[in-house]
Amino acid sequence: MDKFDEKLQVLSKKGLSEEEIKKRILDEMGDECICPDCPMFNQCAREKYEGLYCILGKSECTLEEDECICPDCEVVEDLDLKYDLYCIKGSEKELRE
């Protein structure tokens, strides 16, 4: 079990719903998120206050695929996430299913 699975398991044991888990992780790690610095992050994403796609899932906006900076993010490193392009593909949890 890696850090991501451990984090989800700990929060699930607290009886939190999936939405509450996402909010908790956003509160804890949102400041580490570098999504707004990504070349794919556009005006639509900015206006919708999107980010932390690795946890919250893909963007509601149409994003043009470009250089992905997910591997440089502390959230990805801290949780041992395995994927990238979360803004287009979906959250780590979705990609693991």
The biggest sheet amounts to: none
N to C succession of SSEs: HHHHHHH
Task: Quickly count the domains.
Answer: 1
- The structural class is mainly alpha
> So what's the overall shape?
globular
Given as residue ranges, the uncertain stretches (5+ residues, pLDDT < 50) are none
End-to-end C-alpha gap = 15 Å
Counting DSSP E segments of at least 2 residues, the number of strands comes to 0
Rounded to the nearest angstrom, the radius of gyration is 13 Å
Helix content: 40-55%
| Helical run tally | 7
How much of the sequence lies in strands comes to under 5%
Average pLDDT level = 96
Textual characterization of the structure:
The chain is built from seven helices and no strands. The protein has 97 residues and is an all-alpha fold. It has one domain. The longest helix has 12 residues, at 18-29. It is globular. The two termini are 15 Å apart. The mean pLDDT is 96.
Short description:
This protein is mostly helical and 97 residues long. The chain has seven helices and no strands.
Task: Looking at this protein, list some descriptive labels.
mainly alpha, globular, 97 residues
